[in-house]
Amino acid sequence: MNSSAAAAEAARGGRAVRNAVLVHPVSTPSTSAPAPSQPWSRWRAMLRAIKWRHILVTLFVFAYPFVATPFFTFQIGAQSLALGLIALSLTFLGGYGGMVSLAQMTVAGFAAYMLAIFGTSSNAVISLGWPWWLALVVAISLATLFAAALGWLSVRTEGIYTIMITLAVGVAFFYLAQQNYTLFNGFQGFSKIAPPTLLEVNFRDPVPFYFLVLACAMAGYFFVKHLIRAPFGIALQGIRDNPRRMQALGFNVTAHRVGAYAVAGFLAAVGGVLMVWYNGRISPGTVGTGAMINILIIAVLGGMKHPIGGFIGAIVFVLLQNFAIDLVDRERFNLVIGGVFLAIVLFSPDGLLGLWQGLRNRVGNASPNRGAGRIHR
Asked: What is the mean pLDDT of residues 321-337?
């Protein structure tokens, strides 16, 4: 009896240790450097992690509106960043949570509708005319709650059933917006929804609007990069790989998944607000089945396992959307998108970033200096 009780106590202690390690990684004190130098060490580690390509990309995105035409600044750059932010929400859900949702565009459209209803639009009968900042906060908050409710409904299923539930919710919202004239104004939707003027900066102009979308996109990207390294993100990835084991270790699998849907919904809501400011209107066609599938295509094109993949996929999608008609008829645009999507999936399941990484590995393995270094070592 004593031995069995000791074994049970040891098992409970082992689980407690594992929980502590997973939630709060153990940090061993460093004797080589005093405590005041630890922040500087952290900054030096961050600086060493910055590569030359990161600097080039940062310089490019900030200099882009000053060398590009207003069409490329607004139509290509701003639209790609806004769509990429919505695709980032799906990348976070699918790549790090293992949950593929087709309703991310629905959440974005819900935020856009709420902004039109609580703010100002062409329909003064329905729109309440609240200040833009109050309507913005309410719209994003309601969209986040809507995404959390959607997550609570769908996280109890897995695989194809999750996809079907999110698709059903998206289609239901589409028909609700199309047939309801009291709240959503039916198929006409809302128009004349413009970004505000703040500190004498007119965000309707291409360059200010581009920097507004760029700031939101960068904030969303770095937020996801930080979150996936935080205890919540690490636990979410563990749930993605083995939910039963994480449940046995004491983690609330349902709460983590619903929280992931809420985070993804917040990102999609911000992207939806930027898209309605970009288009100047919102209608049921914006949240239709085609728009929902387009977000999935964008995320898969760039790479579901990388936060930057959503933005790369959005750039490719927007470029094809604007210039594919020079090669084929406008009615055959979906055929071009489908062909590109099929080629990427066949040759690189990890999207364009996976294809790029594979090419880098091949070049690195074929380098004679790399081989000589290996022999020398």
From this structure: 72
For residue 234, count CB atoms less than 10 angstroms from its CB and return exposed for 0-12, middle for 13-18, buried for 19 or more.
middle
Say how far residue 46 (Cα) sits from the centre of its chain. Answer: 23
Residues whose CB is less than 8 angstroms from the CB of residue 123 and which lie 6 or more positions away in sequence, other chains included? 116, 185, 190
Reported in sequence order, the residue ranges of the chain that DSSP labels E, i.e. its strands, are 190-191, 197-198, 201-202, 281-282
Report the DSSP pairing between strands 281-282 and 190-191: antiparallel
What pLDDT was estimated at residue 48? 65
Alpha-carbon distance values, 149 to 74, 131, 257 (Å): 34, 27, 11
Catalogue the long-range contacts made by 176-181 (C-beta closer than 8 Å, 24 or more residues apart).
177/109, 177/113, 177/283, 177/284, 177/287, 178/284
Half-sphere exposure of 57 (CA within 13 A, CB side): 10
Torsion of CA 323, 324, 328, 330, to 10 degrees: -80
| Residue 226 to residues 232, 234, 257, 307, Cα–Cα distance (Å) | 10, 11, 18, 11
Q: Report how far apart, in Å, the C-alpha atoms of 367 and of each of 132, 251, 363 are.
A: 57, 46, 6
Distance CA 267, CA 261 (A): 10
Contact call for residues 279 and 195 (beta carbons, < 8 A): no
Torsion of CA 209, 144, 225, 303, to 10 degrees: -80
Q: What six digits make up the tokens of 29?
A: 């004190």
Distance CA 166, CA 169 (A): 5
When pLDDT is averaged across residues 142-171 and rounded to a whole number, the result is 91
Chain centroid to Cα 262, Å, comes to: 12
Beta carbons of 102 and 296 less than 8 angstroms apart: yes
CA dist., res. 259 & res. 147, Å (int) = 9
206 backbone φψ class: left, alpha, beta (φ>0; ψ -120 to 50): alpha
pLDDT tens digits, one per residue of 159-179: 788 889 999 999 999 999 999
pLDDT in tens, 110-139: 999 999 999 999 888 999 999 999 999 999
Question: How far is residue 147's CA from residue 324's CA, in Å, rounded to a whole number?
Answer: 34
Residue of 274, 251, 338 whose CA lies nearest to 300 = 338
Per the listing, tokens 């600097």 go with 55
